[in-house]
From TrEMBL:
<keyword id="KW-0004">4Fe-4S</keyword>
<dbReference type="InterPro" id="IPR058240">
    <property type="entry name" value="rSAM_sf"/>
</dbReference>
<keyword id="KW-0949">S-adenosyl-L-methionine</keyword>
<protein>
    <submittedName>
        <fullName>2-iminoacetate synthase ThiH</fullName>
    </submittedName>
</protein>
<dbReference type="InterPro" id="IPR034428">
    <property type="entry name" value="ThiH/NoCL/HydG-like"/>
</dbReference>
<feature type="domain" description="Radical SAM core">
    <location>
        <begin position="68"/>
        <end position="305"/>
    </location>
</feature>
<dbReference type="InterPro" id="IPR010722">
    <property type="entry name" value="BATS_dom"/>
</dbReference>
<keyword id="KW-0411">Iron-sulfur</keyword>
<dbReference type="Pfam" id="PF04055">
    <property type="entry name" value="Radical_SAM"/>
</dbReference>
<keyword id="KW-0479">Metal-binding</keyword>
<dbReference type="InterPro" id="IPR013785">
    <property type="entry name" value="Aldolase_TIM"/>
</dbReference>
<dbReference type="Pfam" id="PF06968">
    <property type="entry name" value="BATS"/>
</dbReference>
<dbReference type="InterPro" id="IPR007197">
    <property type="entry name" value="rSAM"/>
</dbReference>
<dbReference type="InterPro" id="IPR012726">
    <property type="entry name" value="ThiH"/>
</dbReference>
<keyword id="KW-0408">Iron</keyword>
Amino acid sequence: MSFYNVYEKLKDQPFHTWFNEVTTTDVEKVLRKDRLTESDYLTLLSPAAEGYIEEMAQKAHRVTLQHFGYTMQLFLPLYVSDYCVNTCKYCSFSVDNVFPRRRLTMEEVEEEAQAIAAMGIEQIIILSGESRIHSSVDYLTKILKVLKKYFSSVGLEVQPMDREDYEKLVGSGIDALTVFQETYDENIYRALHTKGPKRFYNYRLDTPERGCQAGMRSVTIGALLGLNDWRKESYIAGLHGHYLQDKYLETEIGMSFPRVQPNAGSFQPEVHVTDKNMVQAMLAFRLFLPRAGIIVSTRETPQLRDQLIPLGVTKMSASSSTEVGGYAQPEETQSQFEISDERSVEEIRQLLHKKGYQPVMKDWQIV
Ligand code: SF4
């Protein structure tokens, strides 16, 4: 059994009709319920639910407090390599884009770690372009040895790997995995990823599950909103989260809602996903899976991020750089995408305190 079996049953369903048949009475009924079914989740993603964002927000706030209290985890991404063998048109690191590529040496990793640690950050995610050669298990293990001196939790967002590789990395101290399916629509996925190992839809789809099986403490998934109908993508991503949460009780499942951002290519999103659309997707997910983490990055504007804090978010990045070596030597290389919120870690901490939230810098210690 794989999530693909769930997807297969859904892929040819008339989502457009389903969403448009939902009435305001249906939405009101769902909002009175404590536990939501898959069909209730679909209801909250419908156009009819757009008029109930405020009610959804209030309920999402209450539900989040029950499970997480007034806390917010803070983390930073650490880009270690921009070598990539794939050709995603929506990303600056695509192998088709020509720019001087870079991979950090261990000395440079140490410099980056010191710059990040000086901001008070204790949780990081290692990011790279997808290349088994440049971001090999061996290279990542060496990096981890350096990072363990500075951080209490180190996650991974690199190319999908086999379970055995994840097991090795978990054994070395990696505790979290992030992998976005980009789009759950198999046809759009294949059209967007024509070359490189990323073209294998099923291997990517099963990656979060391999991470759970390998013993990752937390696994974060998501769809890149803007590549397809955001309601359908959010729905299937939510069911994927549900599938993982039900099957791997010991793993914390998280969801991210990234939207296509300006990048080095000329790619334009297929669908314009507004702030309101993104908020609706997030609120519906929170009400469907109250225990799941919700992660918001600095892709979003400061104004939006401020508003999202009480609506279900459990983890935020702050003062991020999306370029390799971007903390110790900013603006020397190509960034993966543009960020919108450039406020410092200290500014975000103060903002959280002002809103009554406790910034959580550490909830785990690498063994
Ligand atoms: S999205 Fe990932 S796989 Fe695609 S080009 Fe960018 S770094 Fe490479």
